[in-house]
Amino acid sequence: MNPRLFAIAGPLEGAFFALPEQEVSIGRSPSNLLVIDDPSVAPEHCFIQGSGEEFRLRDLGSPKGTYVNALPVEERLLRHGDEIRVGDCLFLFLLYEAETPPELRRERELEWLAAENRRLLAEINLEHNMVGESPAMRAVFQFISRVAPTDSTILICGESGTGKELVARAIHRNSPRAAHAFVAINCAALTETLLETELFGHEKGAFTGAVVQKRGKLEVADGGTVFLDEIAELTPAFQAKLLRVLEEHEFERVGGVRTIPVDLRVLAATNKDLTEAVRRGAFRPDLYYRLNVVSLTMPPLRERKPDIPSLASYFAAKCARRSRRRVLGVSPEALALLAHYDWPGNVRELENAIERAVVLGSTELILPEDLPEALLEAQGNSGLPTTTYHEAVSAAKRQVVLRALEQAGGNYTEAARLLGLHPNNLHRLIRNLDLRASLKKSGNHRP
């Protein structure tokens, strides 16, 4: 016997690792015996414990899971020739010196093909309202197909406008709870008092104006899914109340004394760094760990630019129907501008830009001049051909901004006041018009 792992894919590809008769921890953290420096691997991902001819693999609740022969496992007795996937890294478990017998190889291959067939069918049958075929979005669809059938709490992270609620709705729609309610709550839009009555409901007479009993969103979502958007905005007091619901699966209405049991799945979303909020004491660590059972970070639009043409066409058709306008699509010149822009507001900003172009445009194609000024300002730095009109407009803007900064002695806040702009808009203008080099040269670069 010679128990060992052979890396067949990933950063350790080609390396052998002996497995002693002790617990071998595997993960990204340097404290592990087998360290895998790969972002797809959790800090403490899994471990293998062996004794004699028995070696057991156990997953440690890793976000991406641990797979044996393409099947997700929590714990499994390993056999010679098993293929182990840790994140995006592949290993072969070898117990004996000899090769895997042909009959076992055929058995492993059939097991792998069956699992792969199930995975592909799940992806094909996935219902969602998202547009995109980029690798980043295919990874999102794979994630949804894997977590939707489970009952795990999911934390969806990502910048504003990336489609976090669309992911939450897709998870619900493809889950066993799809026949029940999906209830979305924006935690940042309500005060703590209003949020409490919105979620928990209230009894008649609980406060002034409570003339009838009201069921809360948690009761409405019983048997279904509740989506808590902007979860980082919850007050510490309300975090404690939410934690009790997650742990005890029960709550009381405002002004009530009766405990109400509830069966629901919780999906949460945030555009903030919750780990930093926990470090600052702004977010309860116990609630963070309870929410962060499985997590997904939505890719910003600048990291999935191959999806921009299909997104633009989808939004153009959608807005054209709503506006009762005939729009055949987006011109190649306008598409080039869309592809060059960085989209700080992500997909939501793209949709707004296309809607503006549909409403204000006068032809059957969306043209560059139909797009928002921010895109046209960035055109000069893109290497794309520009019209005489847009060149003149950009040149005039450069002169106005440079003159204001000169008058303000390089003070951006004062220059923004002189221009009647918010300082953030002035910074955007300077970036889009590529003025930083000119400002440094003139000595007026003093934010």
Number of distinct beta strands: 22
The percentage of residues in β strands lies in 15-25%
How much helicity do the residues have?
Answer: 25-40%
Extract low-pLDDT stretches: none
Cα(first) to Cα(last) distance is 67 Å
Mean pLDDT: 83
Total helical segments: 16
User: What does the main sheet amount to?
Assistant: 6 strands, antiparallel
Q: For the CA atoms, what is the radius of gyration?
A: 27 Å
The oligomeric status of these chains comes to: single chain
Shape: globular
Helix-strand blueprint:
Layout: E1 4-9, E2 16-18, E3 23-27, E4 34-35, E5 46-51, E6 54-59, E7 66-68, E8 71-73, E9 75-77, E10 83-86, E11 89-94, H1 102-124, H2 135-147, E12 154-157, H3 164-173, E13 182-186, H4 192-200, E14 201-202, E15 214-215, H5 217-220, E16 225-229, H6 236-248, E17 250-252, E18 259-261, E19 265-270, H7 274-280, H8 285-291, E20 294-297, H9 308-323, E21 329-330, H10 332-340, H11 346-360, E22 365-366, H12 373-377, H13 388-407, H14 412-419, H15 423-432, H16 436-442
Parallel strand pairs: 3-4, 12-19, 12-20, 13-16, 16-19, 21-22
Antiparallel strand pairs: 1-2, 1-11, 3-5, 5-6, 6-9, 7-8, 7-10, 10-11, 14-15, 17-18
Description of the structure:
- This protein is of the alpha/beta class and about 450 residues long.
- Helices cover about 40% and strands about 20% of the residues.
- The protein is built from 16 helices and 22 strands.
- A 6-stranded antiparallel β-sheet has the order 2-1-11-10-7-8, with no helix packed on it. A 5-stranded mixed β-sheet has the order 4-3-5-6-9, with no helix packed on it. Strands 13-16-19-12-20 form a 5-stranded parallel β-sheet.
- A hairpin with a 6-residue loop joins strand 17 and strand 18.
- Helix 9 packs across helix 11, helix 13 crosses helix 14 and helix 14 crosses helix 15.
- The longest helix has 23 residues.
- The termini are far apart.
- The model has no long low-confidence stretch (mean pLDDT about 85).
